[in-house]
Task: inverse folding
């Protein structure tokens, strides 16, 4: 409700309670003139007199009585709404809508979601996993995990982590049986790519010499990172895979890291919210939980998330 209307209704209700504008003004820390102006404005808006006036006391007209009862209900509703909004702002609660790439559902989100559900029992989480472009504002999500860089100025992006895409192949693929120190050997085999990562995964760079090697375009292009990982595991070809999502597969020998002295550019992970001056407590709690966990994943290569 409009704050000016709420203020005017409070002035009116206090005037009714006190039966006198001067006493109402003293209670509200206002001047009697200011109270009189508020009452006059209300009467002009509704086109009826609210008070019968004499030199000593004000009494309600029939219209004033109707308006007073309605004002009490409106003020009570406004107070309830204000308390609910303040609670939402200060206490993580309510439905939290999160959107994330499908690959994050493979284990990257388990720990932060566990933390949220255990620490904040009043939060109910709705998680949407998609690798397709979507409108954050139109979809009504509170928080989206996105791979940057981002160019939409209507959104607020908070940096969470920088991770690498690494070339991998199944342990049963022919590439796993030959020397793969140099990326030139890759051109003889199928490259499996993700539609959203090929733009940052075209060039390998040698860690010491700085030499650049351009990868062949993907022969198999997929719009789902979990599918890219699975196709790589199935021996279709080699893939440029997100290191945190496949480190457990490398550790257990199902995948082999190719060209270990060569690396691709980092990709950045962001928590994205609609452009607002403030966010609800539930969203702040989710961002903090994600940032804390992703920092652990980044700083501890022995930490498995799958």
Result:
């Amino acid at each position: 409700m409009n704050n000016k209307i709420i203020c005017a209704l409070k002035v009116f209700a206090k005037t009714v309670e006190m039966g006198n504008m001067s006493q109402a003004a003293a209670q509200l820390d206002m001047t009697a003139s200011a109270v009189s102006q508020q009452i006059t404005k209300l009467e002009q808006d509704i086109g009826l007199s609210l008070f019968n006036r004499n030199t000593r006391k004000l009494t309600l007209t029939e219209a004033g009585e109707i308006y007073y009862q309605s004002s009490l209900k409106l003020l009570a509703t406004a107070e309830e709404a204000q308390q609910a909004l303040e609670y939402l702002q200060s206490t993580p609660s309510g439905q939290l809508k999160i959107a994330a790439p499908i690959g994050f559902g493979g284990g990257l989100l388990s720990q932060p979601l566990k933390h949220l559900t255990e620490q904040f029992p009043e939060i109910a989480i709705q998680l949407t996993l998609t690798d397709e472009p979507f409108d954050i504002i139109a979809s009504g999500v509170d928080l989206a995990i996105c791979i940057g860089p981002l160019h939409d100025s209507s959104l607020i992006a908070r940096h969470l982590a920088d991770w690498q895409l690494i070339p991998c192949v199944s342990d049963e693929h022919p590439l796993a049986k030959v020397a793969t120190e140099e990326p030139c050997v890759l051109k003889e085999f199928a490259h499996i790519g993700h539609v959203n990562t090929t733009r940052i995964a075209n060039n390998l760079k040698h860690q010491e010499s700085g030499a650049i090697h351009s990868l062949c375009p993907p022969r198999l292009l997929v719009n789902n990172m979990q599918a890219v990982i699975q196709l790589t595991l199935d021996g279709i070809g080699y893939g440029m895979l997100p290191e945190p999502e496949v480190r457990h597969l490398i550790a257990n020998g199902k995948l082999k890291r190719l060209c270990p002295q060569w690396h691709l550019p980092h990709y950045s992970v962001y928590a994205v919210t609609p452009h607002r001056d403030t966010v609800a407590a539930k969203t702040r709690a989710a961002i903090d939980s994600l940032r804390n966990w992703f920092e652990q994943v980044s700083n501890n290569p022995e930490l498995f998330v799958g």
